[in-house]
Fold this protein.
Amino acid sequence: MSGTVLEVAGLNKRFGGLHAIQDLDFVLLEGDQTAIIGPNGAGKTTFFNLITGFHRADSGRILFQGNDITNHPSHEIARLGISRAFQISNIFPKLTVLENVRSAVQAKMGKAFDVLGRADRIGTEEAERIIRLCGLNDKQRVAAGELSQGDKKKLELALALSGKPKLLLLDEPTAGMSLEETRETMALVDRLNQELKLTTLFTEHDMSVVFNHARKVTLLHRGQIIVEGPPGDVRASETAQRIYLGEHH
Amino acid sequence: MPDFGSLLIQLFSGFSRAMMLFLLSSGLSLIFGVMNILNFAHATLWLLAAYLTYTFFQIFSRLWGSEALVLMASIVLATGIMFLLGVAIERFLIRRMYARELPEQLLLTFALILIFSDTIKLFWGVENRRIVLPIEPMEVLGSFVNPYFFVIIAAGCGIALGLWFFLHRSRYGKMVRAAVFSRDMVSALGIRIPAIYAGVFGLGVGLAAVTAGIFLPIMPLSLGIDMDLIVQCFAVVVIGGFGSILGTFIASLMVGVVYSYSVLFWPDGALAIIFLILVAVLIWRPWGLFGTEMRY
Amino acid sequence: MDMASSPGNQRRGWFSDLYRGRGLSGPVAIIFLLGFLLVPLLPGQFPIIVGTEILIVGLFALSFNLIYGYMGQISFGHAAFFGLGAYATALLFRYLQMTAGGIGYLGFFLSLIVSLPVAALGSLVVGFFCVRLTGIYFAMLSLGFGELLFYIVFSWYSFTKGDDGIQGLLPPPFFQNPTHYYYFTLAIVVLAVLLLWRITESPFGFTLRMLRDNRNRAAFLGINVRRVMLTNFVIAGTFAGAAGALWGPFQRSVSPHILGWAESGKAIFMTLIGGAYYLAGPMAGSIIYTALNAYVTRFTIFWPLTIGLTILVFVIFIPGGLLSVIDQRIRSLPKKGNTEGNQKAEKAPSPGRGE
């Protein structure tokens, strides 16, 4: 199964009476850039949470590069190479931008327990590289809590990129961004995908982003995959239109 | 091995202690449920109320002959004052802490313990205080028992029922319960959240005050008993689970009875047993017997 | 940095380099060290005794702050490890005293050192359970364990002499002199602070800060949160034990109350008053707290009221502690060579970020 980065089979998750994810099957090949779309409450974030070990699956399997990662702890999954950027910026507010990214780099380097090293001398070049890549170079010494919303999202992405992930999960990467920032961010995602073969899976509500940047689109609704395929096909599908016109606001 | 008589007395003592714990812990749980603030000073405010009630009792005793009347008047007056004090504490102190981090919130109510327990020392000194009601001991199963225990249990149940009705039937109570679920929604509906918070805190403190007054006739007051009590309350809310009335009730029975019997066998270490239970529950099942399971 | 010719300007240049490079704690620590070195010059023995107490309890508070300021959890049972260390030292001390007829220098040092593994083991056991929780539950469980350890020490009369405590901890002749013991304590505390500084500025130190700022995100970055918390808990407990070790011979006795929540509370107060986000904060807090205590208790018995009001004021108005106030003042000073005062000329970290 080389070339398959992520394989999900028969995944189920219930929250009390709500069957959030129903018998989900899903495959991601290496180098894919796939978008998951669907109305609010479709289960997109739950899906990400299951992949990254934040929720326990009721049944089913998740395989990452052939390894079974179902219900493994989040930190193990992250160490294997799955990285995640959150919808609402999930950063370290009291640390500077540089410290944020550098600490993430150090963690991925396995240095989290290094008690005697000097933090400001480890991983700095790599951290600065990522910061430059994400367009935060002039804000290195600003405390993360003080950044603007757009910058926080950039930092969010920077954190997700630390540690050279093999699979990148982006939860609404352009939410709250201006047109310009959206363009920049998605151009970066494209570049990472093409140059580094970084498999990317992202959720989005902004359809222009989806159709301009995703090579495959998956429509999720009430925990089930309704339609899958190239963007054009999904856009043309009647089922998709019905779901969106019926429930989308 | 203590005789059956003292075992029976300890059982009554355990039940009445359970009732006190239930009332106190309900107030603590209510405040935590609505405002997410753990009021460390809850038992200290209880003690302050007790001392206040004591003083009013002394004063009114000179005016009226009927002890029951005097006691009730003292309780009402003390509760009213403590309710206002609770509202003031929320309005001027607690309100500033909602946006703050947890440790700072804990420190604030911790500081209140120091302030109020020393206030008690300031006004009432260090000697023990008690009030004595002339009541004939009743004979039950061959031992003599203070019939006031039954008054306590009846009053306690009455208050608990009153609280339940208030929360579930009155308009204000429903707003309070709604605020537990979603303060944003309640606020969006135009209901003044700050007023609810102030009221709830005052209610919690007032509840503690009433409890103090009711128990005054059987409980000698001394400095420091608030610390024992707040630990027992923590044990109750942890064992029972925050937000569950049934849980609080059952946990109160457990802690009350266990403590009473522990005092019989190991006076110095009765509290240690409570700590042991607290630790055991937090290790095994932190959300308590009846709380909702949390990811932790 | 402008290194102008006059010595005054040169010192300020080096000073602000230290400040800019290392944060406020650098200069503050040096000022403190100078102050501590000079204390014995004051008349009488009282300043030395107070100074020793400030140092020992300050070290205890510094250990507490590893858990609080750097990792974001509040532990109400930290004094138990201080007490474990103190009792370990006291017990070995008494044993050597009684079997040899007196305590020699080797025995003295051995007694001090034995506190470390004992406190480490204690915090390993307690921490194993505590790190599975956070927030209020962590606080309550740590309180519970702390009090259980207190009760064990209090009740186990045959081993610990219970409420009577362990008396007669007279150090060897050289250390019976308060001034000698003071400098000895100072040396150990300086060593400990250097270690703590190294630890907090290491990658591990930043892992702690990540746990403080956003525990969940840290897990998603590959950090085994529980293991980090446990490691830190044990480190903090060990340093607390070291402080405890120094306490016994200093007081010539130990008693169970040093394991209780009131002692844990002291560390919390000191850290809050001095500043939790600064390495030197807890020591600053120790100075203020101990001095305040010594002063206030001369006039009134209402020390809890005083300290309670102080905590109240600090929590509400100065949650970052004294050092945060100083830090903010310094940051808003006009830079040299710049006529308009500038606040964040080099995008300096914002106030409250600390260090």
User: Anything to note?
Assistant: The two ends of chain B are 44 Å apart (CA to CA). Chain B touches chain C through 38 residues (CB under 8 Å). Chain B is about 75% helix and 0% strand.
